[in-house]
Amino acid sequence: DPREISRALFCREAKQRPASSACAAELSNNMSGDKSQFAGNEQQKDIRSSNILAAKAVANCIRTSLGPKGMDKMITSASGEVTITNDGATILDKMEVAHPAAKMLVDLSSSQDVEAGDGTTSVVVIAGSLLDAAERLLSRGLHPSIISESWQQAAALSVDILKSIAIKVDLSDKKNLVTAASTSLNSKVIGGYSQSLAPLAVDAVLGITEDLKSSSTVNLTDIKIVKKLGGTLEDTELILNGVVLDQGCVKTAGGPTKMEKCKIGLIQFCLSAPKTDMENSVVVADSAQIDRIFREERRYILKMIKKIVKSGCNVLLVQKSILRDATNQLSQHYLAKKKIMLVQDIERKDIEFISKATGCKPIASIEAFTPDMLGTAESVIEESSGSGKIVRISGVGNPGKAATVLLHASNRLFFYEADRSLHDALCVVRCLVKMRYLMPGGAAVEAELTHQLTQKAKSLGGVVGYCTRAFAEALEVVPYTLAENAGLSPIKIVTELRKKHAEGKSTYGINIKKCTVSDMKEEGVLQPLLVSVSAIKLATETVQAILKIDDIVPTR
Predict the structure, then answer these.
(1) What does the DSSP 8-state code read for residue 51?
(2) Which one of 104, 114, 429, 456 is least enclosed by Cβ atoms within 10 Å?
(3) 118 catalytic per annotation
């Protein structure tokens, strides 16, 4: 074959020249007319560079929001709705992202929010820094698979290091739990109210925990946050032995607004006359038929009211109905006459929570309305709260593991941010129920990981050691960014932090208030171990996934 002969001659000549063997192989391929491998490599490089660039752009966008002195973002929607927040998950969730690799970082933040509830900004910033380090390694000729495997090992080493320096915590030690919740709240817009909200978050989570010694998780859906505009965040209160409903009672027929020694019924059927299907109608020919319809309607409603009265119920909660009215004027009149307090339009999603909090069982039909289905409470009172009404149920006889937080705020923007921040604080306490260890905050964790992984990289040697060192250096983005956002000299602070950790002071981090490096354990800046572990694992997995992509294939 003439091609084989020319290739053999060229390779023999290439060996005699000072050119490298790789260059000779490339030239040989070009001479033989096979350009597919070269073109493929260039395309793969372009795709990876594009993915890394897009993901880094998302990370850089929220990097300035990291830490207690981080900046807030004002997010505006097409409808004119405005949101002010520095919560990473919220910013990314509302951001319009088109690039598929950038969307992976949005999903990363959401995953961290589900797993730990806090550290949503940190995990994206770490991922962005790892991608930056990966780009440098790729430019030096390292294969993405080697980088990916090395970093997987580095992430596993990081988790082991974190567990070795973690501080064990007991759930009965409320002081440490409050400290962790305060650390989370201090980085939010409402950081000034952390002293009052942190103990409230701890009490709420511990109040719904089945067993403080053996429980391994907490269901936060058992904590309902009722938001009312008016007052300040200091007026926020926690209700454990009872529940607060976000609506007033029905008073149009002269019904009671206060009740003592209550028996509470929760019904899922309507106290109104049945209607025809939406596409049908009833034609009434004369007045006698109208009178007959009214009589039948009255008889139908009276039958249900008598059954309710017979059971001893004096507070009635009615689920919201779509197809017809939950109650009509006739049923409201009879209930008021029998001194039964009526609260209607209970949302379907709240039925399970109210049932758990009050000890009553949902009743699907009037035939099932019996005394054993009712809950008991000392009092049910309608109160004015801010700009609206609430119904407060107190002294529940047989309460389940449920809690209600009545949240007050002075304006709507502050109001929703307070809700998000309080949810993060609840998630932090839940993390401590799942994994009962605390870590020093203020970037002490990342600084210690950088120090120990750098030492480990020296012993590993080779390409794995080189990649591990790059992984360790990438984690320094957290202390660097914290210092930068606080207006400090990043190089000076990070250098001082390196020195302290080299001396074995693993709990030293950045003290934003004193503008120096100090012991975070003594300063009371603590965070759950689960937040750090989850951030390292999830960030590494996402970066691995991005590095493994070598092409984007559009589909119809």
Answers:
(1) H
(2) 114
(3) no
> Choosing from 64, 87, 246, 468, which is the catalytic residue?
87
Q: Per-residue DSSP letters for 196-233? A: HHHHHHHHHHHHH-S-TTT-----GGGEEEEEEESS-G
User: How many other C-beta atoms lie within 10 A of the C-beta of residue 145?
Assistant: 11
Tokens 């966008």 sit on residue: 61
pLDDT in tens, 51-92: 889 889 989 988 999 888 888 888 888 888 888 888 888 888
Instruction: Please list the alpha-helical segments (H only) found in 116-248.
Output: 120-139, 144-165, 174-186, 194-208
Instruction: For 18-64, write each residue's pLDDT tens digit.
Output: 433 333 343 334 333 443 333 346 667 788 888 889 889 989 988 99
For 416-472, write each residue's pLDDT tens digit: 888 888 888 999 899 988 888 998 988 899 999 999 999 999 888 889 999 999 999
Pairing assessment for the beta strands 375-385 and 388-396 based on DSSP bridges: antiparallel
Determine whether 246 is an active site residue: no
Q: Is 75 exposed, middle or buried (0-12, 13-18, 19+ CB in 10 A)?
A: middle
What beta strand segments (E) does 312-457 contain?
A: 315-319, 341-346, 362-363, 375-385, 388-396, 403-409, 437-440
Nearest one of 255, 330, 334, 245 to 293, comparing CA atoms? 330
User: What phi, psi does 439 have (nearest 5°)?
Assistant: -125, 150
Task: Tokens for 459, please give them.
Answer: 């012993």
**Per-residue pLDDT tens for 171-189?**
888 888 898 889 888 888 7
Cα 229 to Cα 236: distance, rounded to the nearest angstrom: 11
The catalytic residue among 64, 83, 120, 358 is: 120
* Dist CA 505 CA 493 (whole Å): 15
The answer to whether 87 is a known catalytic residue is: yes
Residue 262 in 3-state DSSP? strand
Report yes or no: 83 and 75 within 8 Å, Cβ to Cβ.
Answer: yes
| Residue at token pair 């020694």 | 261
- The answer to whether 459 and 164 are in contact (CB under 8 A) is no
Encoded tokens for 392: 């407060």
Report, as ranges of residue numbers, the positions in the chain whose pLDDT lies below 70: 1-43, 276-280
| Side chain identity at residue 123, one-letter code | V
User: Which own/partner contact pairs does 169-177 have at CB distance under 8 Å and 24+ positions apart?
Assistant: 169/432, 169/436, 169/437, 169/438, 170/436, 171/206, 171/209, 171/212, 171/213, 171/432, 171/433, 171/436, 172/212, 174/199, 174/202, 174/206, 176/438, 176/526, 177/202, 177/206, 177/429, 177/432
Residues in CB range of 178: below 8 A, 6 or more apart: 198, 199, 202
Q: Which residues contact 545 (CB under 8 A, 6 or more apart)?
A: 104
* Helix (H/G/I), strand (E/B), else coil: 399: coil
Residue of 121, 183, 468, 481 marked active site: 121
Residue 371 backbone phi and psi in degrees, to 5: -55, -30
- Annotated catalytic residue, options 424, 481, 507, 542: 424
In the block, which residue shows the tokens 């339009």? Answer: 345
Give the strand pairing for 362-363 and 258-267. Answer: parallel
Residues 6+ apart with CB under 8 A from 164: none
